[in-house]
Design brief:
Pfam families: GST_C_2, GST_N_2
Order of helices and strands: EEEHEEEHEEHHEHHHHHHEH
CATH architecture of the largest domain: Up-down Bundle
CATH class of the largest domain: Mainly Alpha
Distance between the termini: 52 Å
Structural class: alpha+beta
Strand order of the largest sheet: 6-5-4-3-7-8
Radius of gyration: 20 Å
CATH topology of the largest domain: Glutathione S-transferase Yfyf (Class Pi), Chain A, domain 2
Largest sheet: 6 strands, mixed
Number of helices: 11
Mean pLDDT: 96
Strand content: 5-15%
Organism: Altericroceibacterium endophyticum
Keywords: Transferase
Low-confidence stretches: none
GO molecular function: glutathione transferase activity
Shape: globular
Protein name: Glutathione S-transferase family protein
Length: 328
């Protein structure tokens, strides 16, 4: 995979993403700082100070876009939306309004001129100090969940203390089995590695189907971050992973509970605007390792706006800290 080597863009980094057995290994994120409402913190929560660098196609960036919408942070945390270019994710302008094309790797070298590693989205950028705060989506969604509550008055909590155990339980299942599992299948370079990864994907989907047939959300009655971490993979599955990544044993449309669950989440206020099917499908089919001939299939046709039946199961929406405090 391409990336930066001592601050210089290279088409192939020296440390391979594939093991000798042909397994795809996702590298760790390099930036893991947090934003806090504490005025003495290194990165203080302030409207307009931080920018999210994302791409429509990327599910990891999709997590942060979903959380930004749910927490009504559109006026607090602006975004830059990129596309694949000759040197990785590329944007129409740079962080200071510099006219593009602006490859994301230049943002990484603004922070660290000698950076070595992959150049990934999402990136949470501090416009004031010209530094990367965080490039790990799991961290960023938790930052967005709480750091700016005092500025928005939105106290919805996607990671409430009372549900930590259930949330972490499902996160620990969904990340290796689905979120990263589809990539391990799609980027495998050996048959045994591919089959192990693909079978793991469907074992995870089967488990989710069984659970969601009886429960409105993964953590029960409440919709939490675990649901949105699953959502970004589910919404890409039939249009991209099923074909481009060869995860073709079944479609999400073949799972009654999962397909209805997916439609409910897609129809949540503000979420449909974070999904661009017209970008997602061609992007995945443009990956040479997954689709060397570059041909984009004409199907499938999906309608995530269709009616769903999830109201038949008891649900309480997203945990509201303000309401819970009032009740107490």
């Amino acid at each position: 995979m391409a990336g930066l080597l001592n601050g210089q863009w290279v088409e192939k980094l020296p440390d391979p993403d594939q093991s000798e057995a042909g397994e795809y290994n996702r590298p760790s994120s390099a930036y893991r700082s947090a934003i806090s409402s504490d005025p003495d913190a290194e990165f203080v929560a302030e409207p307009g100070r931080y920018r999210l660098w994302v791409a429509w196609a990327c599910p990891w960036a999709g997590r942060t876009l979903a959380m930004r919408a749910l927490k009504q942070l559109e006026e607090i945390v602006p975004i830059s939306i990129g596309h694949r270019g000759e040197e990785g994710w590329t944007y129409d302008e740079g962080p200071d309004g510099e006219e593009g094309p602006y490859p994301l790797h230049r943002l990484y070298t603004l922070d660290d001129p000698h950076y070595t590693g992959k150049v990934t989205v999402p990136v949470l950028w501090d416009s004031r100090t010209q530094r990367i705060v965080n490039n790990e989506s799991a961290d960023i969604i938790r930052i967005l969940n709480s750091a700016f509550n005092g500025h928005t008055g939105n106290y919805l909590d996607l990671n409430p203390d009372a549900l930590h155990e259930q949330i972490d339980h499902w996160n620990d299942i969904i990340y290796p089995g689905l979120n990263n599992g589809v990539y391990r299948a799609g980027f495998a370079t050996a048959q045994t590695a591919y089959e192990a990864a693909a079978n793991g994907v469907f074992e995870t989907l089967d488990l989710m189907e069984s659970h969601l047939a009886q429960n409105r959300y993964l953590a029960g009655e409440y919709c939490t971050e675990a649901d949105w971490r699953a959502f970004v993979s589910l919404v890409r599955f039939d249009i991209a992973y099923h074909g481009a990544f060869k995860c073709n044993l079944r479609r999400i449309a073949d799972y009654p509970a999962l397909s209805n669950y997916l439609r409910e989440l897609y129809q949540w206020p503000g979420i449909a605007q974070t999904i661009r099917q017209d970008v997602i499908k061609p992007d995945y089919y443009s990956i040479p390792l997954a689709n060397p001939n570059g041909i984009i299939p004409i199907g499938p046709e999906v309608d995530y706006a269709a009616l769903h039946n999830r109201a038949e199961l008891e649900g309480r929406g997203i945990w509201d800290c303000a309401a819970e405090d009032s009740a107490a």
